[in-house]
Structure formats: structure tokens, C-alpha cells
Amino acid sequence: MKVATRLGLGFGAVVVLLLVLSVVSVMRLGAMNEGIRKITTDRYPKVVLSNEAIKRTIDNGRLLRSMLLSTSDEEREKFRRSVEANRPKISDALAKMEKLISTEKGQTLFKDITDKAAVLTPKYEQLYALAKTDPKRAAEFLRGEFADANNAYWASLETMAKFQSELMEQESAAADANYIDTRRLVIVLSAVAVLAAVVIACMITFDLVRRLGGEPGYAASLMEKVANGDLTAEVHTKPGDTTSMLFAVKQMVGKLQQVVNGQRAVVAAANRGNFDARVDLNGLQGFQREMGEGLNQLATTTGASIADVVRVMGAVSDGDLSKTIDQHYEGTFGELKEYANNTVAKLAQVVDGQRAVVAAANRGDFDARVDLNGLKGFQREMGEGLNQLATTTGASIADVVRVMGAMSDGDLTKTIDKDYEGAFAELKEYANNTVAKLAQVVNEVNNNAEALAAASEEVSATAQSLAQAASEQASSVEQTSASVEEMTASVAQNTENAKVTDAMASKAASEASEGGEAVRSTVSAMKQIATKVLIIDDIAYQTNLLALNAAIEAARAGEHGKGFAVVAAEVRKLAERSQVAAQEIAEVATSSVNLAERAGQMLGAMVPNIKRTSDLVQEITGASEEQSVGLGQINSAIGQLSQTTQQNASGSEELASTAEQMSSQAEELQQTMGFFKLNNNLKRRAQRDVIKVVKPRQFANHILASSIGEPDEADFVRY
């Protein structure tokens, strides 16, 4: 799997977990907000409206009793107006309650309230009429029929208030359960997100370090040293590391050192004339092994051929013409073997012929001749000269002067043809031998000059081919550099993806902070509700005290205060129940405040975790940037290697130029030796010798073509 794919999957998983955490938090906060909204805008107002209707209903009962106990019409009218003022307020409270009721049971309870109100409403007019005509019957009506209807109405209101209180408790319990579930889910998702981020970051970091085998900076510095030709750097790898880039670099450096040291040893030994040194091939593969094997084979073949030539030439220098080269060689070495053996054979033939001629001459017989069959070049010239010497020993001094004069003019074609004996024969022999030897030297110089010119052309062609091969190698290095640049671009893209992930994590932290602020606002609203409930509790407490005082006053009034005492007792009960309900509401509100505060604390704890995740993503971004720098340094090292290859090509071109200069100097030498005039036979033999010298060029071209071929990429690894 590519590094970019791993980074994308890792950061994608973290982002998905963060998104899931954010969505769940928002949904659960919405559910909590909906529960609180129901309590504040639906459940609690209906409880307040129910208590308002109950309170005014009880107040109406008290006012009606006071009205019947009053002795003047003005006081009775005052109490009646107070009752009539409460009745519209009760109706308004019930109308508001009806708009808020949404459940089927609530509608049933409200219908019961309206039914009881329909029964109670006519009772007020009946009571007013009786109070004007018959106060005693009015009091009986109030304690009897009116009290039953009023108590039934009050009971239905009490049932509604209790039902709304139960709904508030249910909403509170649901909010509590929702908070517990939300807290548990947020904790689990946060832990999973943080753990996943840490695990993914560690896995990606460990994988990159494992692939590199060490820090990117250390790997870049090693590659820079190798690119600069420094193979002395020691590569440190971790124990058991056999697959990292540093391990591959270590293996490469070790094998390059092995090849270079072997080449140095072989070249140094060859410079000393020792061709027995070899490159150690243990562990070498690919082009490294080919280089070592090629150098070893070259040293073996060169050493063997030179040893045979040295052996034969040593024997020749000692006067032993019985030694020859029997080992099989190919190409130039085969030609060298053939030339050496032919030289020995022809020299033996010439020497044997000379021995026969000299033996005959020692006996005064100049008819003996050297066998010239198969002789060429200076060997044939030696045989012909000896034969000519034998036939022309009688030349006169005039012929000698003629020959010497022609020699002074550079004409080596003149010889003494007449036969002489005695001193004249010796003079003729000396003169003809001098001409023959000088012609032989001039011929050999011409041959060597032409061979030197041909060899110079061969070296020039070889150098040009090497320059072309070096240029092709430089092109391959440039392609490798382009591949490294593409990998650098991939790492830069990974760095950009990490930055985008960091921005998303920062946004998630900001949204979590906003959620915490919303929770704090909710906490403030719940505290205000708790304050209002405390005020209601205080009012209920004061009402309880007033009812207690009224009961005391009724007790003091004796028989006349019994009805008022009953009303006071009922008011006290209602006040106590209102106080209990207010306390329960206060407890629920306090619990909701605590839950909301804990939710805010949890969101506050989430923000640092999300920021920590963002910091980890930033650290991964920094590591990717460091890797990009390391790849840039590797690309620079490859560029330096390309420059070195181009310098090699330039050196090959300079070698070709030097070879051309050598060819020019050989031509100048030929022009200088052109002063001497040779016979046609010598010129033809010189041309044949030059052709033989030029033949090895085909072998050199074959060697060059085989060494400069398409590069073998089988052992290269693409990253």
C-alpha cells in the first residue's frame, strides 16, 4: 500500500470518528434541549396555571365564607366583587392551559375540569341570591351543595397539577438518562478517536521509519557521501533489519567497496607485471559481478598470453628457436600467438638457410641459397640478401661507389650484381648487406608508422563509442532523477492532506467550544428557573403561616369561627402541598442544572483532546515535510552522479582528440621516411603488413559493441 493511501485512510478514519462524535453530541444536546424546553415551556407552565386556578378557587371559598359572615351589605358586596374578580382569572388560566395540553390524558383531565366548572358556575349565582334573601340557607348551601361542587372542581384541578408534575418528573428522568447515555457515548467515542489517532499516527510513523531504516536526514547524508564517491562511510542499521532502504544502501556500499578494492588490487598488480591478482566475487550480483568477472577474465587472458609471449621471446633472445605457443587464444591474442609462432618458424628457416650458405661460403661455394619459400618481410629480405650476397661477391669497387653514392642520395634500390671473389667479394658483401639492412630498417619504420596511424584511428573510434555510451548512461540517470522528483511530489501531496485534516480537527474543536457555551447558557436559564421556584416555595410558606394565623383567629372566635377555621385548614393544606410541589420542582431544576453543568464540563474536556489530535496531525505533517527534504537531497545526489557521467563522456572525447594527434604525428613520421627510396617489392610487403596490423580493429569493434549495450535493469528496484 502506498504511503499516500495509508495517510489518507488513517486521517480519514480519525476525521470520521470526529464527525461521528460531533454529530452524536449535537443530536444528544438537541434531545436534552428539547426536554428542558418541554419542562420550561410546557410542563412547568401548566403546573403553575393549575396551582393558580387551585389557589384562586380556594380563595373564592374563603371570600364566600367571609361574605356570608359579613353583617353589612357593603362588606358582602366587597367580597362578592373579589370573588367575581378571581373567576375570570381562573378562566384565563384554564384557557392558557388548554392551549398547552397535547396529550390525550391531559385533554381528558381538562375536560373533567371544564365539566366540574360547568357544574360549579351556576352555584355562584344561586349563592348570591340566597345571601340576599336568606343568609341562613345561603350558609347551608355553601357548606353543602356548593362545597361539594367546589371540592370536586378543586379535586379535578389537583389531579391536573399532579399529572403535570408527573410529566415533569418523567422529562427530568428522561433528561437524566439522556445525559448518562450521552456522557457514556461521548467518552467511548472520544477514547476511540484518541486511541485511533494515536495508533494510526504510530503505525504510519513506524512504517516510514521501518522502510527507511532510520531518520531521513541520516539516509540523505549517506546518499550524499556515496554520490560524492565516498565509500568509507559506515552505514548503521537496526538489529534484524534486512528490508529497509538503509540496509540496501549498506549492501550497495559494501559491494561497491568490494568491486573497487578488487579493481585497485588487480590494476596495481598488473602495473607491477603480476597478472595473478583477482577481484573477489563473493556476494556480488548483477553489473557488479559482471564488472568483477570481466576484469578477472581480462587479467587471466592477458596474463596467460603475455606469459607465453614472454616465454617464447625469452627463448628467442637466448638463441633458442625451438619454443612456440601451444595454448589456444582468440581475437587479438590469437593473432599475437600466430605472429609469435610464425616469427620463430621463419627465423628458424632463415637461420638454417644462413647456416647452409655460410657453411658453403666457408668452403668457397657460393652456389648455396637460402630457401625463401614462405618467408616475408625482413625475413625474406634477410634470405634474399644472403642469396644476393652469395651471387654478387665479385662486384667491383665502381659498383660499391655507385651503390654508396645512391645510398647517400636516399636511393636504396642500387646493389652490386656482379660476382667477385676474395677481397672484392667481401667488399661486395659488406656493401650489399649495408643496403639491405638499411632498407630493412626503413621498411620497418614505415610499417610501424602506418601501424601507429591505424592504431590511433582505432583508439579514436573506441573513445567516441565510449563517449556515446557515457551520454546514454547520463540520460538513464536523468530518468531516475525524474522518478525521484515524482515521489517527492507524492510526499508533498501527503503533507497538504495532513494540513487539511489539521484544519478539520481545529474546526471540530471550535464547534465543541460553541456547544459548551450553549450548555452554559442552558445552565444559567435553569438557575433562573430554580430561583423562581424558590420564590414560589417562599410564597407557599407565607401562605401556610397566614392560614395558621387564620385558624388561630377562628379558634378565638369560637362557634362563629368554625367555618372560617375549616377554610383556613384547607388553605393551609393547599399551601403545604404547593410548598412540597415547589420544593420538588426546585430539586428537579437543581438536578437539571447539575446535569447541564456536567455536560458542559464533558464538552470542555473534549476540546483539549481534539486539540491534541490536531497537534498530532501537525507533527505528522512536519515528518512528511522532512521526508520531502530527504528525497530532494537524494535527487541532488543523482544529479551529481549524472554530472560525473557527463565528465566521463568529456574525457572519452579528449582521448579521441589525443588519438587523432597521434595519427597526425605518425603521418609526419611517414613523410620524413619518404626521403628513402625503396624497391617495389619492399613497398608491396609494407602495404601487406599494414593491412595485417589494421585487421585487429574488427575485434576491437566487437569488444566495444559488446561492452556498450542496453543497460540491464533486472537488478534495479523501483520505489
Give a concise summary.
This protein has 719 residues and is mostly helical. Helices cover 85% and strands 0% of the residues. It is found in: Membrane.
Tell me, what is the CATH class of the domain at 1-212? Answer: Mainly Alpha
How large a portion of the residues is in β-strands, by DSSP E? under 5%
Alpha-carbon Rg, integer: 62 Å
Low-pLDDT stretches are 690-711, 715-719
Report the structural category: mainly alpha
Question: Roughly what percent helix?
Answer: over 70%
Order of helices and strands: HHHHHHHHHHHHHH
CATH fold title of the domain at 1-212: Four Helix Bundle (Hemerythrin (Met), subunit A)
Q: What does the largest sheet look like?
A: none
Assign an overall shape.
rod-shaped
How far do the termini sit from each other? 12 Å
Oligomer: single chain
CATH architecture of the domain at 1-212: Up-down Bundle
Number of helices: 14
Number of beta strands: 0
- The average pLDDT value, as a whole number, equals 74
Structure commentary:
- Helix 7 runs parallel beside helix 8 and helix 10 packs parallel to helix 11.
- The longest helix has 136 residues.
- The protein is mainly alpha-helical and 719 residues long.
- It starts with a helix and ends in a 12-residue tail after the last helix.
- The C terminus is likely disordered.
- The protein has a domain of 212 residues: Four Helix Bundle (Hemerythrin (Met), subunit A).
- It is rod-shaped.
- It contains 14 helices and no strands.
- The relative contact order is 0.10.
